């Protein structure tokens, strides 16, 4: 092989972070979890904080997150990741601590924990994966399920008069004084992945700078639970979830003031 034919590492379209463990992921093909795992591993590796990072794993599809990223992990009971993270942060104030939670975990059973942790301004990063459904347990309606969305428990679509309205957790935590950076991203295209990674790195840096709670929501797909192909799920997400959960920063201020809408 001639020298000119050798592909240089910096020119590879896909490069594997050294922090990703050589374990085959259990996620369904097309699931957003795997993409976000890769971004977290890349961000931690590039920022050189592997040895000082502690992740709090949830209950849900991502319960085995500790099998894939080579950092210290702590498992939490369903919805209690912010409470566990609070203890870890206060015992280890020089560590970078983050929680990784789905919408059924964070917005339902863990709603009280996340609201109070954000209100206290605990110095941690919250990564919130919102696919609008309980993906692990059979595709039931979640607090974030949008109106008219079909799930196993809303076969005719979510009815706000019967089931209440979809819960915009990110909008809620943006109003709390303890949050310094609150953003909503996605990971369905190359451009979206790059934006999501920048948001994650900014959230990490805020924690390192001790600015309180940073909150990164990632609007995601569950093509298995939605009964769609990955391509169909991405299109459905863009056409239906993005209008209700618009992407972008909701708060970005050292003083914790909401981003101006003007």
UniProtKB/TrEMBL annotation:
Keyword list, A-Z: Oxidoreductase
BP GO terms, sorted: cellular respiration; small molecule metabolic process
Thiamine pyrophosphate enzyme TPP-binding domain location: 66-218
InterPro entries per record: 2-oxoacid:Fd_oxidoreductase (IPR051457), THDP-binding (IPR029061), TPP_enzyme_TPP-bd (IPR011766)
GO MF terms held by the record: oxidoreductase activity, acting on the aldehyde or oxo group of donors, iron-sulfur protein as acceptor; thiamine pyrophosphate binding
PANTHER family: 2-OXOGLUTARATE OXIDOREDUCTASE SUBUNIT KORB-RELATED, SUBUNIT OF PYRUVATE:FLAVODOXIN OXIDOREDUCTASE
Protein name: 2-oxoglutarate oxidoreductase
Organism from which the protein derives: Mariniphaga sediminis
